[in-house]
């Protein structure tokens, strides 16, 4: 299958990624891929998990442990600035979810195929001419790390690649499904964190300036920094949309802020199936990958209701908790799907053409 997968990837680059890059910034309006060769080394699937519980009977959910280490040749140019750059090797490792839905009674039995990563994959790219690329106006504030984050997030929920296999399938509903629920994260406090700051060339152990990074898919939140405290109290609240479960997790990492490189203070992974089952978790969690430290979280699973019958009750509850979040707690969710446009003014098209 690999040669045909490569054909699909090349089509994806030229028909989706290239127009998206051109439209992202006026300085990139002459961006194009001059060569796309993914290489002969195929992607490996090291393990497969199939879900049989908490799954709609008209779908099949697979989690694939994928690994790709390939020598490729992807060349790009921005003609306006005579800039050329490229990629000569890519590594990607992570869990890719494949959803086969809807199952139908006619061949090919599957209506469509959806692909995405549940969380940010490990991605490494060996660039050529990256310095030239970052000299282009509008890109000079970027870095290798930021570019990798942008690419990774493009592959992570709620972003997905959906391929229809039959013409009757409602592709919009598969590409932009309703969230399964909302996770409200009360990021409260920590205890007994490691002291990373040192004095007198490391002889005297000091305290830390801890902060947290919270991830649900490609939704990322960062707490405030608490200066010189091993028992910090944040008392912050975040709300994240959950599009897939089982399999999706809440990821938290704690760091000590430093002028050069922030030190790691521990991490935590929580399966959202457990949160949905309990509806409310208020616990102290032991931090992983460090010798000591605990984190106090309160997690709420909020189910979306199709009607506004309980809205007054929700609003009353939120008013009672109004001091918990800087921008207030949510009471409802508005989902807007922009389908298409017609009969746009000709002047808009002319303006875009002239700007090239």
UniProtKB/TrEMBL annotation:
UniProt KW keywords: Calcium, Cell membrane, Endoplasmic reticulum, Lipid transport, Lipid-binding, Membrane, Metal-binding, Repeat, Transmembrane, Transmembrane helix, Transport
Membrane topology: Peripheral membrane protein; Multi-pass membrane protein
Name used for this protein in its record: ESYT2 protein
SMART domains: C2
UniProt keyword Endoplasmic reticulum present: yes
Organism: Ramphastos sulfuratus
GO CC aspect terms: endoplasmic reticulum membrane; plasma membrane
UniProt domain SMP-LTD: residue ranges: 1-166
Signal peptide, first to last residue: none
Subcellular location: Cell membrane; Endoplasmic reticulum membrane
PANTHER family documented for this protein: EXTENDED SYNAPTOTAGMIN-2, EXTENDED SYNAPTOTAGMIN-LIKE PROTEIN 2, ISOFORM C
Transmembrane regions listed in the UniProt entry: none
Family the UniProt entry places it in: Belongs to the extended synaptotagmin family.
Source organism superkingdom: Eukaryota
Alphabetized InterPro entries for the sequence: C2_dom (IPR000008), C2_domain_sf (IPR035892), Ext_Synaptotagmin_C2A (IPR037733), Extended_Synaptotagmin (IPR051634), SMP_LBD (IPR031468), Synaptotagmin_SMP (IPR039010)
Keyword Transmembrane in record: yes
GO biological process, one term: lipid transport
Gene Ontology terms for molecular function: calcium ion binding; calcium-dependent phospholipid binding; phosphatidylcholine binding; phosphatidylethanolamine binding; phosphatidylinositol binding
C2 domain span: 165-285
């Amino acid at each position: 299958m690999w040669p045909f997968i490569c054909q699909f990837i090349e089509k994806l680059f030229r028909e989706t990624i290239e127009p998206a890059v051109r439209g992202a910034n006026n300085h990139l309006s002459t961006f194009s891929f001059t060569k796309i060769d993914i290489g002969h080394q195929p992607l490996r699937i090291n393990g497969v998990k199939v879900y049989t519980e908490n799954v709609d009977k008209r779908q099949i959910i697979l989690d694939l442990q994928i690994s790709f280490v390939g020598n490729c040749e992807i060349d790009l140019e921005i003609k306006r600035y005579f800039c050329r750059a490229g990629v000569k090797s890519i590594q990607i490792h992570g869990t890719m979810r494949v959803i086969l839905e809807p199952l139908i009674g006619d061949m090919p039995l599957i209506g469509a195929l959806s692909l995405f990563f549940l969380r940010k994959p490990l991605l490494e790219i060996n660039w050529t001419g990256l310095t030239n690329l970052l000299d282009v106006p509008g890109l000079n504030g970027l870095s290798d790390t930021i570019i990798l984050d942008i690419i990774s997030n493009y592959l992570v929920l709620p972003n997905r690649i959906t391929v229809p296999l039959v013409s009757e399938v409602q592709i919009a509903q598969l590409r932009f499904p309703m969230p399964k629920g909302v996770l409200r994260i009360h990021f409260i406090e920590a205890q007994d964190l490691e002291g990373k700051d040192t004095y007198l060339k490391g002889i005297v152990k000091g305290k830390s300036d801890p902060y947290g990074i919270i991830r649900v898919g490609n939704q990322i939140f960062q707490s405030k920094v608490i200066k010189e405290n091993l028992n910090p109290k944040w008392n912050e609240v975040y709300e994240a949309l959950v599009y897939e479960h089982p399999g999706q997790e809440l990821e938290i990492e704690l760091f000590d802020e430093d002028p050069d490189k922030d030190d790691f203070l521990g991490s935590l992974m929580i399966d959202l199936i457990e949160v949905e089952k309990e509806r409310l978790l208020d616990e102290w969690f032991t931090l992983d990958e460090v010798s000591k430290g605990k984190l106090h979280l309160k997690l709420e699973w909020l189910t979306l209701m199709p009607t506004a019958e309980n809205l007054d009750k929700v609003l009353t509850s939120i008013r009672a908790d109004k001091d918990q979040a800087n921008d207030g707690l949510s009471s409802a969710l508005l989902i807007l799907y922009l389908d298409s446009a017609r009969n746009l003014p000709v002047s808009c098209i002319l303006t875009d053409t002239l700007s090239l």
